[in-house]
Amino acid sequence: MIGIRSRNMKILTLLFVVISCRAFAQPEKPKNYHRFDEKTFHFGFMLGGNVSDFTLFQVNDVYEKYGITSIENQSQPGGQVGPVITMNLGTPIVRLRLIPTLSFQERFINYQFEDSTVTGAFFNQEQVSSTSLDFPLMFQFRTNRLNNFAAYGLIGFQYSLDLQSSAEASQSFTDPFIKIKKSDYQGQIGAGLEFFSTYFKFGIELKYSHGISGSLIQDNTVVSRPLDNLYNRTWWISLIFEG
Q1: How many CA atoms lie within 13 A of 128 on its CB side?
Q2: In the 8-state DSSP scheme, what is residue 180?
Q3: 51, 122, 130, 171 - which has most CB atoms within 10 Å?
Q4: Is residue 72 part of a domain?
Q5: Tell me, what's the pLDDT at 171?
Q6: Which residues, including other chains, have CB under 8 Å from residue 38's CB and lie 6 or more apart?
Q7: How many whole angstroms separate alpha carbon 161 and alpha carbon 98?
Q8: Under 8 Å between Cβ of 48 and 82
Q9: Can you tell me the distance from the alpha carbon of 53 to that of 109, in angstroms, rounded to the nearest whole number?
Q10: Host domain of residue 157
């Protein structure tokens, strides 16, 4: 699964590069929405998809201690939507962007046990779902416009509040589940392309986020004991419309 995800991200990155090269190779044309960069604030909306999983660290000697031959992290697709607020920081080249986001994420952790009597099954899969309010605050560094096209890079951080968190739920030791923390802080990096039409700007954006602190709640169950920690990580691809 990791290899497939890595290949898909490489394809998306290559697509970004190809589109950028073609756009910069265009001859000079009349500019659409030429007064866009004169505004201090821009508002719009975003919708997109994501692929989420964990950076997983297991305890030492997990086989000797728990009879587990492997623990695998499996990514799953999700989606997100939210409003966009962008502020020019005295220049159209450097901007500050906030996108309060409602996101839906899902991941699986697969355990392979040598002895099926440990959990009643040789193979065990734990599902971890999240419905989050995300608050990414990003610095955006944009190129000068060429005709009706521009490209940009992003760097920043994100605070996430998991509305679906089971952190305070009663644990079932007969059918245990993975608990993750309700709040999370993540670093983010990304890039995007912008296309200017007559009355609005359309953008496509690719971002990667990774947790700064661990999210696992260690409650000493058969599914949490083999784990040292979990860090949230997500690839985001978004379509952004601004006026």
Answers
A1: 28
A2: B
A3: 130
A4: no
A5: 84
A6: none
A7: 16
A8: no
A9: 9
A10: 2-58+80-104+131-242
- Per-residue burial over 130-144, b if 16 or more Cβ lie within 10 Å, else e, is bebebebebebebee
Q: Report yes or no on 191 lying in a domain.
A: yes
Element (H, E) at 195: strand 183-196
CA distance 224 to 76: 20
Q: What is the pLDDT of residues 146-192, one digit of tens each?
A: 889 999 999 999 999 999 988 888 888 788 899 999 999 999 999 99
Residue 119 in domain:
no
Alpha helices in the chain (DSSP H): 2-24, 62-66
Provide the pLDDT for residue 24. Answer: 45
- What is the residue type of 85? I
**Residues sharing a CB contact under 8 Å with residue 52, sequence separation 6 or more, in sequence order:** 75, 76, 78, 105, 106, 107, 130, 232, 233, 234, 235
State the CB neighbour count (10 A cutoff) for residue 70. 12
Q: Looking at the 3D structure of the chain, how many domains does it have? A: 1
In CATH, what number is assigned to the domain containing residue 146?
2.40.160.20
Q: 172 or 225: which carries more pLDDT confidence? A: 225
186, 158 Cβ separation under 8 angstroms: yes
Q: Which pLDDT value is given to residue 173?
A: 78
Sign for the CA dihedral angle at 118, 2, 48, 81 comes to positive
Q: Are 203 and 242 in contact (CB under 8 A)?
A: yes
Residue pair 139/156 in contact (Cβ under 8 Å)? The answer is: yes
Written as six digits, the tokens of 82 are 């939210």
